[in-house]
Specification:
Layout lengths: L6 H7 L14 H40 L16 H7 L2 H32 L6 H7 L2 H4 L2 H11 L6 H8 L11 H29 L3 H9 L4 H12 L1 H16 L3 H6 L16 H11 L3 H52 L1
C-alpha cells in the first residue's frame, strides 16, 4: 500500500532534521489544553499536600527535634541529650503501665464495638418501619460532645453515689470501685467509648451493606440459604474493605484515647486515677508535658506512640492483603476449571 504526501502540507510544515516532512508546531491554545489535561490533577490535589506538610509533617519533624533535647515548656530548648529521652521512657514503669492500660481499654472497647456495630447495621439493612428514624437515632450519641458524655458516665460510675452502684446495692451486690480498680475502671471507660462510637461505625457499615447487589441475596434464598448463611457468606465478604477501614480507624482512635480517661475522675490529683489505674499513653504524655514540664520526654513518648500505631496499621494491612488473596485464589481456580472445561468441550 503506497502513501502520498500532500505538497502543500510539506511546504507548510517544513522538513525535519532528517530531511523528511515534519509537523507544524501546535497552536498555543492546543498546547495549553494538553498542558492543562496533564498537570491540572496535580494542581487540584496540591492544596491537600501543602496543608498536610504544614500541619502534619512539620509538627512531626519538630516533635522529633524536641525529643532529642532536654526541653522545658517555659525555658525552651535545653541540653542536647540525643536518644536519652527514648531510652529513659523505655525503662520507665509508668510508660509501660500506660501502654498496658491503653491496650486493655482498646480491646475492651474495639471488639464489642465492632461486633455491635455490625449487628446494628445488619438490622438496619432490613425493611423496618420508620427506618430513617432508627438510622438517625444510632448517630445521636456521636453528636453529643465527649466532655458531656464523660461527665454523665463519670457520675453514673461514681463509687459512693453513682447510679450503677446504687442498682448493685439494691439487688444485694457489693459496690464496685469503678475509679480506683484497674479492670472496673477500664470497663467503665470502654463503655463510654462504645456508647459514643458504635452508632457511627454502624452507619458506615450500613452504607457498605446497601451497596451489595440484592440479586445475590435473592439467588442465595432461592438456593435455600438462610438469613445467617446469607449474612456470613455474602454480606461479610462483600463489605470487607469497609470493615478493614473501620478496624483501622478504631485502632488509631483507641490508641489515642485521651478525653474519657482524663475527665473520668476530674477530682483526682493524678491523671489516670490515684494509682494510675487507667492512665493511657496520651494521658501520660500530657502529664509529662504540662504537669512535669518535661517536653522532651513527652515528645519521645509521642514518637513511640506514632511508631506503634504505624506498626499496627501495617500489620492490619498485611492481614487484609492475605485475606483478600486467600479469597481470590478459589475464584481463580474456579475460573481456570471453567476455562479448561470449555476447552475440552470445544475439542
Amino acid at each position: 500500500m503506497s502513501t502520498t504526501t500532500d505538497p502543500a502540507r510539506v511546504i507548510a510544515e517544513g522538513p525535519d532534521r532528517g530531511g523528511k516532512p515534519g509537523r507544524a508546531p501546535l497552536p498555543f491554545r492546543q498546547r495549553m489544553g494538553r498542558a492543562e489535561s496533564r498537570y491540572s490533577p496535580y494542581v487540584y490535589i496540591a492544596p491537600f499536600f501543602i496543608l498536610f506538610a504544614i500541619v502534619g509533617l512539620f509538627p512531626l519533624g519538630y516533635t522529633f527535634v524536641v525529643a532529642l533535647n532536654d526541653w522545658n515548656l517555659l525555658t525552651g530548648p535545653g541540653e542536647w541529650v540525643g536518644l536519652a529521652n527514648f531510652t529513659r521512657e523505655l525503662t520507665d514503669p509508668l510508660f509501660w503501665n500506660s501502654i498496658v492500660n491503653t491496650f486493655s481499654i482498646f480491646l475492651l472497647s474495639a471488639i464489642p464495638q465492632l461486633i455491635a456495630a455490625t449487628a446494628i447495621a445488619a438490622i438496619l439493612d432490613q425493611n423496618l418501619r420508620a427506618k430513617t428514624f432508627w438510622r438517625l437515632s444510632v448517630i445521636v450519641p456521636y453528636v453529643v460532645t465527649p466532655v458531656a458524655v464523660t461527665l454523665i458516665f463519670s457520675n453514673m460510675f461514681g463509687e459512693r453515689y453513682g447510679l450503677i452502684n446504687n442498682i448493685l446495692t439494691q439487688i444485694g451486690m457489693d459496690p464496685v470501685m469503678w475509679k480506683s480498680s484497674v479492670l472496673p475502671s477500664h470497663l467503665a471507660i470502654a463503655t463510654m467509648v462504645n456508647w459514643r462510637w458504635t452508632g457511627y461505625n454502624a452507619l458506615i457499615l450500613l452504607a457498605a451493606m446497601q451497596a451489595v447487589p440484592r440479586e445475590l441475596y435473592e439467588s442465595a434464598a432461592i438456593d435455600g440459604a438462610g438469613a445467617f448463611r446469607r449474612f456470613f457468606s455474602i454480606t461479610l465478604p462483600s463489605i470487607r474493605p469497609t470493615m478493614i477501614f473501620v478496624i483501622i480507624t478504631a485502632t488509631i482512635g483507641g490508641l489515642q484515647i485521651f478525653t474519657e480517661p482524663k475527665l473520668f475522675d476530674a477530682a483526682s490529683s493524678i491523671p489516670g486515677g490515684p494509682g494510675r489505674e487507667y492512665q493511657t499513653t496520651v494521658l501520660y504524655l500530657w502529664d509529662l508535658a504540662f504537669n512535669r514540664q518535661q517536653f522532651g520526654r513527652a515528645a519521645a513518648v509521642a514518637w513511640m506512640l506514632f511508631l506503634l500505631i504505624v506498626a499496627i496499621g501495617l500489620i492490619n494491612f498485611q492481614l487484609s492483603r492475605r485475606i483478600a488473596t486467600a479469597d481470590a485464589r478459589p475464584r481463580r481456580q474456579r475460573n481456570g476449571m471453567r476455562k479448561s472445561r470449555r476447552r475440552k468441550e470445544g475439542a
